[in-house]
Amino acid sequence: MAALTLGQALEREHREIDGGIESFLDELDSGVRVDPSRLVTALESLRRHIYLEEVFLFPDLKAAGLMGPIFVMLREHGMLWRQLDAVTGMLADDILGAVASAELRKFLIQGTMPEGWVCSSA
Questions:
Q1: How far apart are CA 105 and CA 86, in angstroms?
Q2: Span 38-61, average pLDDT
Q3: What does the pLDDT look like over 72-90, one tens digit per residue?
Q4: Rounded distance, CA 88 to CA 108, Å?
Q5: 78: Cβ contacts below 8 Å, ≥ 6 apart
Q6: Phi-psi group of 119: left, alpha or beta (phi > 0 → left; psi -120 to 50 → alpha; rest → beta)
Q7: Is the predicted pLDDT of residue 70 greater than 60, yes or no?
Q8: Cα separations (Å) of 21 from 15, 16, 18, 42, 110?
Q9: Using CA atoms, how far apart are residues 43 and 3, in angstroms rounded to an integer?
């Protein structure tokens, strides 16, 4: 099996994140009691994906002269990040215990990922 190109790997990650969110919404629409852990995982993956795009991908794309598309994506990332904060806050407040909520709130304020951290599927 051939190794994925970086573009293919990023696209696969997009599909996995979208799939996790869609799966949660489908389950929610079905009326059964839902486990929010898949949504939390998808949202954490989306934050990680935004991070990797802005830190690793966008600087070289900007240097190549793609300022317009990067500006649009940065604006979209800002909107997504605020929505992630809102959704995560609702999940933390309604589902997570006090300790987990406090840790999540601290992370949301810091806005940085620990050095060397990778997602569980990497």
A1: 11
A2: 91
A3: 999 999 999 999 888 887 7
A4: 9
A5: none
A6: beta
A7: yes
A8: 10, 9, 5, 6, 24
A9: 26
Output the CA torsion 75→83→44→22 (10° steps).
-100
The C-alpha atoms of residue 35 and residue 47 are separated, in whole angstroms, by: 20
Please name the amino acid found at residue 57: L
Note the pTM of the prediction, 2 decimals.
0.70
| Tokens, residue 82 | 């605020």
Q: Give the amino acid at 16.
A: E
- Contact in structure between 49 and 73 (CB atoms under 8 Å): no
62/120: higher pLDDT: 62
Q: What gap in Å lies between CA 120 and CA 122, rounded to an integer?
A: 6
Report which residue type is found at 114: P
